[in-house]
Design a protein that fits this description.
Elements: E1 2-12, E2 23-34, E3 37-43, H1 44-49, E4 58-69, E5 71-77, H2 91-104, H3 111-125, E6 128-134, H4 139-151, E7 156-159, E8 161-162, H5 175-189, E9 196-201, H6 209-221, E10 226-231, H7 235-244, H8 251-257, E11 265-269, H9 275-284, E12 287-290, H10 292-297, H11 305-310, E13 315-317, H12 329-341, H13 349-364, E14 381-384, H14 390-396, H15 402-412, E15 418-423, E16 426-427
Parallel strand pairs: 1-4, 5-6, 6-7, 7-9, 8-9, 9-10, 10-11, 11-12, 12-13
Antiparallel strand pairs: 1-2, 2-3, 4-14, 14-15, 15-16
The structure holds guanine and zinc ion.
Length: 432
Amino acid sequence: MQQLIRGRVLDFHADPHDTDDNHRSWEDGAILVTDGVITATGDHAELSRRGLIPAGIAQTDHRPHLILAGFIDTHIHFPQVQVVASWGAQLLDWLNDYTFPEEARFARQGHAPAMAGAFLDLLTAHGTTTAVAFCSVHRQSAEALFAAAHARDMAMVAGKVMMDRNAPPEVLDTPQQGYDDSRALIEAWHGTGRQRYAITPRFAITSSPEQLDMAGQLAAEHPDCHIQTHLSENRAEIDFTLSLYPKARDYLDIYDSHGLLGPRTLLGHSIHLKPREIARMAETGSRAVFCPTSNLFLGSGLFDAGGLRAAGVTSGIATDIGGGTSYSMLATLAEGYKILQLQGQSLHPLAAFHWATRGNALALGMEDRIGTLAPGSMADLVVLDARATPAMALRMERAQTLAEELFILQIMGDDRAVAQTYVAGRAQKPAA
Ligand code: GUN
Ligand code: ZN
């Protein structure tokens, strides 16, 4: 099936931090899609002149809205949909008081499938077309998420958390059970359609050395799987972690000594890092993931995006629902802007939108399929309306450049600014 999606189109091909030649945009742009894959992107009249637009093709015109590659969320917790906005605690108490009891519910028959549909609906309502998700400890939570995403042809990177200590028994596995369940999930889902597996030891506090060994073994046996965990989010977490691993040089060294670092590893938070840890992350190609709304909500600290970039570490940006407070990557970029302002780093809107799209795809090593509008990429798209609310419409009266429009979307936007989301060429919202 061929279709033409028309609008004001913005596509990144390089990181604005590296070069001024980083994007192309077309006021009357068009994206030609064949069976869910982008086959051409450019100026509508130009594509027409080149004879690329077949007569009678199905067309949707989103002008004056902006079309970009769909947002990618590189760190989110699927079983925490009903944890968001839980009052008063910092990380360790928040996990014990709210999060572990909620994740325990995923043992119940029928709960995970019901939540998986709701979760994916929330993502696409906010313009997110790919997420990297932690599931609960229960194999069926990951099963449910993969099955729901596969049915929508939506690219997910996900894994069941491995955790065998320091949490209630209902959310614990054992090193062997964690290994067996993860392996069964990899065999069933990794590479099935658009699904990919992330080996997911939750963090060093909830994994014994024996379990991290098993996670490392899985990683060695499945080198094309991602690995995701948490690193240096909060001071009390770091102190407790180091007391559990007294021989480790530092927090990162725990994961390193179990074979868990590399370009496919995503280290959520990565806030309170020592110079040695930053150098080792750069050396191994391990990725940091910035979770702005969560870092503020849980009072965790300020992520040093500029420092990490200068050291050669690639970072993703993410919501971290339910420590995070919004599914919106626009709201996430807004809070990210403020955190970086506190450190004298002003995130430019072009860099911000690059980060939430192609930048996050690069962090995942998936930039050949998602994050851009280049031919060959999947037609995962977000359509943004910078006049979505009265306040935005008024502010837009003063906007003169694309960068200003993007910044208004970044600072004032949320799901109301998402006019449409396409997953593999399929519109996810009823047409307006
Ligand atoms: N560290 C270990 N588990 C979690 C979690 O669920 N959320 C956050 N923010 N940090 C964690
Ligand atoms: Zn997390």
